[in-house]
Amino acid sequence: MLESTVAAIGPLDEAAMVAARDLQGRLTKPAGSLGALEPLSVRLAGLAGSCPPPLPEPAAVAIFAGDHGVHAQGVTPWPQEVTAQMIGNFLAGGAVVNAFARQAGASVTVVDVGVATPLPVDPAEGTGPAGPRLVAANVRPGTRDMTVGAALTRDEARAAVETGIRVAGELVDAGAGILLTGDMGIGNTTPAAALIAAFAGVDPAAATGRGTGVDDETYRRKVDVVRAALDRHAPDPTDPLGVLAAVGGLEHAALAGLILGAAARRVPVLLDGVIAVSAALAAAAFAPDAVGAMVAGHRSAEPGATAALRYLGLDPLIDLGLRLGEGTGALLALPVVTGAVRVLHEVATFDSAGVAEK
């Protein structure tokens, strides 16, 4: 599945992008007056292979959840049980991601790809046909401690990536016009920093942030943990499955799969914060053309996110100092993406409106 998905990912359609640029130049507005929305609309036309591209709706948020063996190194003060407890909160509709999803009219799917503690809910539970749903796809109960050994075997990393690919396919088959990345996993900014340092070639200190807001001592320990893991494994960025296995998380691997699955289906994927962009680096290592399907929703407060976006050549749509995860920043950026496409559908040209050009 992984190989066939990667093989299906191709470059953006140049003819559709030329048509979109031409249309932007004929709309009743000064050229370039919509700033970043104009090149975004062009890129989405190239992804879809048509001008205008389909409106990116309905939207589907996929929250991948997993736990981490590196939690034992004291990289966060939060207990690991919170991962499972937050899944219960997602399904009950009480998290920030639920509030933003309701506002945006987006569906929420929660995927247990590697939670270590028993879930407080049954996969059949949810809030009804239109409410959050839980997908049981646990590869293993949390990763191993990456400072002691590889976090995952290659087979486990592949299983997580292919879980993400399957979820992407199911959501697109159900009608989703855009996928949004979400994540939940106590301690998951530590493997995210390791992935960013490995793929983007930045120093662990530049890739590591304070996550949930750790104190100075915990932050220094976190940087040391990331450095120690990278020194131990020396992951090869040209072997993305190997990097994910060595220092990644199950939710990171699954998110990489979601991105690849979206790119293969020519559907845009709106990236959330540092967990998503660390996964996006892995997806780009598998298939460089997958970057064409990626839209950076926001600039996370985590420094590694900026380093990753710079490496990918993506500019975030909004910058609000967010560091929650869950998919919250992507949901706030969703109207911007929709607006960029709606302009191509609904704004009159100078000729059709009878408006004189300069």
Short description:
With 358 residues, the protein is α/β, with parallel strands linked by helices. It contains 15 helices and six strands. It starts with a helix and ends in a 5-residue tail after the last helix.
Which secondary structure elements does this structure contain, and how are they paired or packed?
Layout: H1 2-7, H2 14-26, H3 37-48, E1 59-66, H4 82-92, H5 96-104, E2 107-114, E3 133-136, H6 154-173, E4 178-184, H7 189-200, H8 204-207, H9 216-233, H10 240-247, H11 250-264, E5 269-271, H12 274-286, E6 294-296, H13 303-312, H14 328-346, H15 350-353
Parallel strand pairs: 1-2, 1-4, 2-3, 4-5, 5-6
Write down the secondary-structure element order: HHHEHHEEHEHHHHHEHEHHH
- Number of helical stretches of at least 4 residues: 15
CATH architecture of the largest domain, by name, is 3-Layer(aba) Sandwich
CATH topology of the largest domain: Rossmann fold
CATH superfamily of the largest domain: Nicotinate-nucleotide-dimethylbenzimidazole phosphoribosyltransferase (CobT), large domain
Percentage of residues in helical conformation? 40-55%
Low-confidence stretches: none
- Give me the side-by-side strand order of the main sheet: 3-2-1-4-5-6
N- to C-terminal separation? Answer: 53 Å
> Averaged pLDDT, please?
94
* Extended strand count: 6
The figure for the number of domains is 2
Rg, Å, rounded: 20 Å
Q: Characterize the biggest β-sheet.
A: 6 strands, parallel
Q: What best-fitting shape do the alpha-carbon axes yield?
A: globular
Secondary structure class reads alpha/beta
CATH class of the largest domain: Alpha Beta
Strand proportion, as a percent range, falls in 5-15%
GO molecular function, one term: nicotinate-nucleotide-dimethylbenzimidazole phosphoribosyltransferase activity
GO biological process, one term: cobalamin biosynthetic process
Pathway: Nucleoside biosynthesis; alpha-ribazole biosynthesis; alpha-ribazole from 5,6-dimethylbenzimidazole: step 1/2
Active site: 326
